Structure formats: C-alpha cells, structure tokens
Amino acid sequence: MIGDVTKSVAGLAICGVVLFLVVESRSSIYKALGLTSSAEQPVRETVTVAVPKERAKSTSSGGSVTLKKNPRDGQFWTDARINNKTINLLVDTGASAVALTLDDAKRSGVRVRSLDYNIPVNTAGGQVMAARTTLKSVKVGSIKVKNVRAVVIPEGLHVSLLGMTYLGEVRKIEVSNDEMKLRN
Fold first, then answer.
1. CA 17, CA 122: separation in Å to the nearest integer?
2. Does pLDDT of 37 surpass 60?
3. CATH class, range 60-183
4. Do the Cβ atoms of 150 and 104 come closer than 8 Å?
C-alpha cells in the first residue's frame, strides 16, 4: 500500500516537472511545430477613451467595402481618406474612437499645436494623454462619414486606429475568417 502511494506521488511529481518544462519551453515547441506563440504575435493596439453617449451629428454615405485580412499579422488594415489625406489605419472594433498618431494627425491636417492633451486614454502600452478633435471626414472605400470624433495620441500609440466613432456610423459590419465587410 505504501509502495503504491509512493509510486503515485512520484508519478505526479514527474508529471509536474514535465509540465513545467513544457510551459517554460513552449516557444521552442511552437517554433518546432511551425506555430506562433501568443507572446510572439503582434500586439494589437486598443484605445479606450470616454466617448459621450449621444452620437455626434454625422452623416455617412456609400455602399459597401470589403477589407482583406493581412496575411502577415492577421489584422484588418485599410487606407482611409481623413480630411482628404490618405492614412493607413488598423481596423480596431475594440477602440472606442478613431485614434491618430501625432504624425498621422499632422498629415491629415489636424492642427496639433492647438490641441489640449488632457484626456487620459488606455492603450496596449498603458495610460497616456490624448487630445480630442473632430475630423471633417473619414472615408473608407465608398463609405464616407463626416464630423468624426477622434483622439490624437502623441506618445505610446504605434499605429493609427479606425475605431468605433467611425465604425459605429456604419450600418453593418460582417467579419469572416479572411475579410471584413462594411455596409452602409
């Protein structure tokens, strides 16, 4: 009886050691199997900012747009016309607002020097300060939305995001494995 208990305890200890080794070397195991570990996947930028409950007075127009998933990172990206300037954006349904890097805000004609960077926002990299602004228009394909509320984040945001202040104005969003369809 004592021998059986000893064997069981020894077996559990060996299983624990093996499990520990597997967990500690999972990136090597993933690499050997041709998989990507979650630690190696690109960090998805998400911005959370308080957006007033009432919708902005905006108008939208257009038909439908199909976005293809980027095979390199598995994300949806799009070139959008912001204030008639082309900006590449990561489509992020988890971002409460359109969020622009400082460079993209400048490129799209936002007067960044006159903005008040007093809004705390949570990004994937932590809390940073941002400034609210309103974009005259954001157009993805044929879908144009006017008077889009956005934030400009001068530090801590690596890519600009197409968030819910634009996406929430689109009538329908459909996502499949390889594509996202926006319909208005």
1. 38
2. no
3. mainly beta
4. no
Range among 14-23, 29-38, 148-157 rated most confident: 148-157
Which element (helix H / strand E) includes 24?
A: helix 2-24
Of the candidates 88, 87, 96, 149, the residue with the CA atom closest to the CA atom of residue 123: 96
Break the chain into its structural domains and give their ranges. Answer: 2-33, 60-183
Model pLDDT, residue 54: 44
What was the pLDDT predicted at 126?
84
Tell me which residue of 69, 63, 72 sits closest to 179, measured CA to CA: 69
If 0-12 CB within 10 Å is exposed, 13-18 middle and 19+ buried, where does residue 83 land?
Answer: middle
Please state the pTM of the whole predicted model.
0.69
98 close to 168: Cβ distance less than 8 angstroms: no
CA distance 102 to 105: 5
Rounded to an integer, what distance in angstroms lies between the CA atom of residue 6 and that of residue 36?
39
Three-class DSSP labels, 162-180:
ECHHHHCCCCEEEECCCEE
Q: In whole angstroms, what is the distance from residue 153 CA to residue 97 CA?
A: 11
Res. 29: pLDDT tops 70: no
Reported as a pLDDT band with limits 50, 70 and 90, residue 45 is low
Q: Which two tokens stand for residue 162?
A: 């197409």
